[in-house]
Amino acid sequence: MGQQQSKDELLYQQVNYGNVEGIKSLHREGAGLEWIDKEGKTPLIVACMNPGLYNVAKTLIELGANVDAYRPGRHAGTPLHHAAKRGLEQTVKLLLSHRANALIMNDDCQTPLDVARIKGFSNVVRAIESHICLFSGWLRELYGPGFLELLAPQLLSRKVWVVVLPCGSRNLRKPFRLELAIYSAVQDAQPRTIVALWKANMEEPNFNQPDSAVIISDISNIPKRWRRKRGIMPSQLIKSRLRGARRKYIVF
After folding, report:
1. Closest C-alpha to 191, from 200, 180, 182
2. Sheet of strand 157-166: strand arrangement
3. What is the CATH number of domain 1-131?
4. CATH topology of domain 133-252
């Protein structure tokens, strides 16, 4: 047993050296891929924290490393959390292509997407969103009283990039809720507004009309504790004075 453990640790050390052939050789000899160091990191987590270890991460995954291995504590998270935190777009895409779960929350109630948004890595944000979203694209947002929209629709509308996403949950057996992330520009990492669709009242669009629209009303703010954890500032949310007002989104 002791000999087996030392092989596992030796394989972990080869990850730090970037020695792909050494990793393969030790694995053929029976070394495991899930050895955990005193900080809670597995070999794959280590590889996903370093931009120079992409090939090592790829090798470990191909050998069967757990893409959802979880590191608890102060720097908690899965390999995807750690890659997103450092803006490693290619490593993020590698993990997602091998079915890494992008909805797992860390100890701070943050998904990898939340982490990438907070750090400002828009390329990673787009990579994760495109992988898990139900819809993404440009919409035209109409705002203000309905009679003014009819009189001056161009003055009371703006083009926005929106993404419909499932929300993370600690209990992966629970049905996921959906949220609408609204960005002023596709290059932005932080959404201007996040709408909790499970709290919104949406009217079904009339597809017989030339411009089919979805009308969202009675939008509730995300709880303060979630805003803090996910790095969402109050200014990014719909102001309370707009509660009960309607926001209309038209496919652009």
Report:
1. 182
2. 193-196, 178-183, 157-166, 135-143, 246-251, 213-217, 201-203
3. 1.25.40.20
4. PH-domain like (2.30.29)
Closest to 73 measured CA to CA, from 48, 41, 103, 25: 41
Burial of 183 (0-12, 13-18, 19+ CB in 10 A): buried
* 178: pLDDT strictly greater than 70: yes
pTM comes to: 0.80
Q: How confident is the model at residue 235 (pLDDT cuts 50, 70, 90)?
A: very low
CA distance 246 to 219: 9
Per residue in 183-225, pLDDT (tens digit) is 999 999 999 988 888 877 777 766 676 666 667 764 455 555 5
Rounded-to-integer distance, Cα 93 and Cα 27, Å: 25
Q: Which residue has the tokens 């090798």?
A: 59
> Which residues of the chain form CATH 1.25.40.20?
1-131
Burial zone of 105 (CB within 10 Å; 0-12 exposed, 13-18 middle, 19+ buried):
buried
CB count in 10 Å sphere of residue 75 = 17
Q: Which residues of 156-165 are buried (b: 16+ CB within 10 A; e: fewer)?
A: bbeebbbbbb
> For strand 201-203 and strand 193-196, is the pairing parallel, antiparallel, or unpaired?
unpaired
**What is the rounded distance in angstroms from the CA atom of residue 56 to the CA atom of residue 47?**
6
